[in-house]
Amino acid sequence: MSAAITAAHAPVDAGPSRVSRTLALAGAELRLFLRNRTAVVNSVLLPLLLVAAVPALGIGEEVGPVGPQLVVTAIGVMLVFLTYYNLLTTFVARREEQILQRMRTGELTGLEVVLGIAAPTLLVTAGQIAVVALGVAVIGEWSAPVDVVLPVVALLCGAALMLMLAAASTAFTRTSESAQITALPLLVISSSLCGLFFPLSLMPEALATAARYLPLTPVVELSRLGLSGRTWDGDVVDLAGAWSAAPLPLAVLAGWLVVGAVLARRGFRWAPRR
């Protein structure tokens, strides 16, 4: 009798925690990522070449010193050309291989699957930006940021937004190859009108106003406010001025996060498209 009572009150093995399951999936995805030479080259080399084109072509001289502008450019370029595009192709490839569908039949929740698959790309994104920042310091172009909170918020929220938009874009992307076409609107329009390569202050007023509401623009605005103390129209500001100019891009970014979450929840597909 006592043995039966003891057995009834014995702790039940709940299995791996959510964090450990997500980390295990992230480790497997990282190994798969490193085995794909094309993905590694595209993720490491091409974004760095795009960033290197900024000082080589003299782009961005109107929006502040070269060092902070390089880091701002790295944040914008990595988020779009690395985080968004890589995650879109990865999600679609895993879906069409029925890997997502099989994962959903086990212990993993939907959020764990998405975060586990996205973790390697997010780590590479952060690593690339860190490499650019280190390079800026090595060549002597680093300057103390006006505020460190704004660029950190921009990077974290921007990465979350690109993850959501990549998940939402799987709704109209049939294959990983077709992602080259479906990703073009965000890759081309958003990156070209966000102020990275062409200052918004030099655009027609109507176009500049509309461009400030694109997904990547608030990320660039907040990063530039914090790193170089420059507003979207080129004014130089201090810490107080940076936060005075921050409410609009913060609100736009928050709005896009809500939109991205709704679109990802409704559009992300777990089963292959037929």
From TrEMBL:
It comes from the Bacteria. It is a multi-pass membrane protein. InterPro entries: ABC-2_transporter, ABC2_TM. GO terms for molecular function: ABC-type transporter activity. The keyword Transmembrane applies. The chain crosses the membrane at residues 39-58, 70-93, 113-140, 152-172, 184-203, 242-264. The keyword Glycoprotein does not apply. Pfam families: ABC2_membrane_3. This is ABC-2 type transport system permease protein. It comes from Blastococcus haudaquaticus.
